[in-house]
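Handout, section B. The chain below has 209 residues.
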Amino acid sequence: MQLSTWLAFFAAAWAISISPGAGALAAMSAGLHHGFRRGYLTTFGLVAGIWTQLVVVGVGLGALVATSALAFQVIKWCGVAYLVWLGVQQWRAPARPLAAAQSDAAEVPARALVLRGWMINAVNPKGTVFLLAVVPQFLDLQRPLALQYLVIGLTLSFTDFVVMAGYTALAARVLGALQSVSAMRLLNRVFGSLFVGAGVLLSAFKCSG
C-alpha cells in the first residue's frame, strides 16, 4: 500500500471510528456502568468484531452477504435482536448511584464485556457491506492483498482503540458525575432507547447489492 493511499485510509478510519453508532453506545454504556478501566474491555471486543468483519470480507464471504438475501436477512435480524435486547436490559437496569452500580458491575466477568463488544460489531451485516464498499478503494490488486488487509485492520484497530477510549472516559468521568438515583434512571433509559433505536435503524438497512 502506497503511503499516500494509507494516509487517505487513515483519515477515513478516524471518520469511521468517530461516527456515532452501536459501538460508541456500547463504549459509553460500559464506561457509565463499569468505570473506565473495566469498561474499556468492551473496546477489545469491538476491535475483535472489526477483525471478524475484515476476515469475512477478505475471504469473500462478504460478497455472499451482499448478494444473498437470505444470508443478509438472517445476520441482520440477529444483530437487530441483540441491540434491542441490550436496550431492554439497559432500560430495566436498577437506578442506583454510580458508585454502587460500578461496585456490582465489578462482578461481571471480563470475558463477558469483551464478548458483548464483539457481538455488537461482528453480528452486523451493515459493517460487512460498508467494508465491502470502502476497503476495495484502497487496495492495490498488483500487490499482496494479505499484507494490505493487515495494514487496514491495524489502522482501524488503532483509531477505534483511541476513539472508544474517549467515549468510555466521557461516560465514566463526565456522565459519572451524576450520582442521584433519578439521574441514573434517566441515563439508563436514554442509553436503552438509543440501543433500541440503533436496532431499528439496522432493521431498516438494506443491502444495495
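Note. The two ends are 27 Å apart (CA to CA). Compare this with the example in section A.
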